[in-house]
């Protein structure tokens, strides 16, 4: 059940940044340096001259909060985040807001890329409290670090957004102070509840232990969990016509390529192929400089959000190389070549390792470095025929960005453009190549977006994997050499004498770069993946030995020997109020998904039973997640498919002794309904009794629930006659009362609940349908809501 949020807190959680115009980036006053000036994070350094009295994450800030009886205000972001920049300019540079913060809060600033463990825990807390989340993440905490409530971006003052009013940060701070003065005990009880729910959410992937076989049926369920846009590719919601933002999902597409090849599923392969082609044609791909922007702001991949992240380009390099191996489309080769040219030019350090990100903004304007006007194109190219040719190739017609700029894209495949021009594809490329070079040269003279030069071990591992895969597939020694150079540097620089890794290689201002920060599971997982790809590309035993050593270290410091799987943080890491065992593949793969893939590969390469058995134990730990949320963990599903190839007959036979249960996912998995009609008032089949069967230990919420915070969860019955809903009264039973000191008492229905009423006079029962909306829960954990459709 949801926490009992105060009315103000609930309002805060509805605040979102999307659609709010950016501030005018005029020169802002320079304030004295604060504590962040001594940090290595570029994101923290961007806030080093705010008037806010910022602390970096650490004991000093929390001890001050405890000593002075203040709440903590936590702000999390990253250096290339557009809305983080807006809030820094608008809100955190406001002296009046800085005074309010100093008087009543201890303020902590965190770079999510340096501390993904902190970001994961508090973003989960925001999600369970009802907000979809995003960055900057703004959270109010108790002095011991428990989350109370929060939001994302806040402007400094209240502002109208359409018909609604978005609360300004000064208003938010005032209301939080008021709650702290009048409802302190309630705030702290709420923090306990949100912390409990956060722990529960972080454990969700491994809560259900598999009793039965690991099967290919589970792989097939995962492969069938995605809805593909049939026109532009990519995954989304068919019910929403696939509208809205679209993110590249390399983990999903890589798994589905593998599954389609194995099962000879031409339709699935076609959906992935359509997606890869549409992304490569769209504006999400930089057609002049190479590489992919973070995501598309709309369905067609045409208009991106312009930041460029190392992890996206790393994974997409490997994905397009894998796709080329299965389908030698020259477009895939060009995408890989152009992406690696971008990485070499803009994202590679003199040491051969890779920087983290390029900002979306330039001089405070999103996309300024990348977009064009028609006049600019003509001026650079200097020739009307060349200009017209470029405009035709890249679909430059009406502006497609902010009503005055053009994001270059290919409006259709190059072969079709060539046919329209009565040329061959090779002729179009021959003419286009020098013109692209001239445009890129001109673009390079523009102001450039900020580059985050910190070196993250995990993301470098993904880039090593991409380079190595490209070297193997395209037989390109330079790509393999780039992967080996980066791997060698990391193994010499971020590995400690006892074989453990550090998370970063970065510099504090005025100092030389150094390895910093405890490694996370993903550092071991992603770097090992890169080393295994290097071994595939070279056959050099060194890379296999190094992969084994890192995997053994991950098992020692992160492994859960009792239940299987791996914790995100090491056993001796700083203890937060919650500890994650991540299994969800998002923008980057989950650490667990990648580790289990590595284990299967190591078992295949070495025939060492310990890796095979550890992989099996980890797969069983996350089998419940594959059952309940099959689309959430494509890397785990991919690993399972490959593990089944190498699992011993004894282990498979032991698995098969017990049938695999289907884990409940939706409320309809545990609730059913039947309707019986009886005579009333001399009319047959007019009274009805609807009986709910609810599998123990689940319950559904009564109607009414007796608790205002649960009003949206109550059980409802709608009588639909001939397609129209009838409004005759329905008699709901009172239900049983559940005592809850934190949330407040509420009422539920258990197995055998009967709901009664009468049908309208003269209605033919054959035209009636009962629609029963239920949410089934147990011990505070709820399944997805369902609407049961029942005919009498």
UniProtKB/TrEMBL annotation:
Spermatogenesis-associated protein 20-like TRX domain span: 34-196
Highest taxon above the source species: Bacteria
Keyword Signal: yes
Signal peptide: 1-22
Coiled-coil positions: none
InterPro entries per the UniProt record, alphabetical: 6-hairpin_glycosidase_sf, DsbDN_sf, Ssp411, Ssp411-like_TRX, Thioredoxin-like_sf
Keywords annotated in UniProt: Signal
GO biological process, alphabetically ordered: carbohydrate metabolic process
Protein name, as recorded: Spermatogenesis-associated protein 20-like TRX domain-containing protein
Lineage start: Bacteria, Pseudomonadati, Planctomycetota, Planctomycetia, Gemmatales
